[in-house]
Amino acid sequence: MDENEYVVRGLLETWARAVRKADVDAVMAVHTVDVVLFDVPPPMTVTGMDAYLDQWRLFWDAQGEGVFDVSDLTVVAGDDVAYAHGLLRIGAAGTEGFRVRLTVGLRRVEERWLITHEHHSLPAG
Amino acid sequence: MDENEYVVRGLLETWARAVRKADVDAVMAVHTVDVVLFDVPPPMTVTGMDAYLDQWRLFWDAQGEGVFDVSDLTVVAGDDVAYAHGLLRIGAAGTEGFRVRLTVGLRRVEERWLITHEHHSLPAG
């Protein structure tokens, strides 16, 4: 595993832990302010950090501090652009939860990797 | 727009045209053989070119040669890794169709950009 992949995997673990703990500052710290989210619930497109956090607040209100684990992760990382895809397991504490598909896009901005795009989904029907 | 972004945008147009025309060879030519697709219909994960093409055959059988247009595209391209996100408009010829969210991951392999990952979805519910 090269250094960029190693750093991106670590950052995605940091993000998952921040979501799990509803730690708003830690979530913000790993994203660009113009992040674009395609989320499981509507709307079609969520643009910018304020709207991104509103989407998570709905999630945190519904879910509390539960399961939020990234698995089956493939990371493709260059020197300043990277993407990753895998699965998220989401659920209340102590449950099996359910799986969601995850794709993330990242850039290196002044030596720090940041998430600029997330796509979370379930198949339709 | 830098050269990498320009080439990636062109490749995504080539892909959309190939899908529109159900041109299997042209679709294959812009992907790695180990492409991973998260599609709108099930299953959760589609892995490898054979399974990827089977998924499109279902689409081509249902849809025929209709609307398949990429719009609102953001491309983030480094020297050998890139990703893009935007919307797809899909529908039968002569209709408005419907919109699907699209994220694509690409690598440059021996001087050629190729798609290694696609994520297509609708919000749930």
From TrEMBL, chains A, B:
<dbReference type="Pfam" id="PF13474">
    <property type="entry name" value="SnoaL_3"/>
</dbReference>
<protein>
    <submittedName>
        <fullName>DUF4440 domain-containing protein</fullName>
    </submittedName>
</protein>
<dbReference type="InterPro" id="IPR037401">
    <property type="entry name" value="SnoaL-like"/>
</dbReference>
<feature type="domain" description="SnoaL-like">
    <location>
        <begin position="8"/>
        <end position="124"/>
    </location>
</feature>
<dbReference type="InterPro" id="IPR032710">
    <property type="entry name" value="NTF2-like_dom_sf"/>
</dbReference>
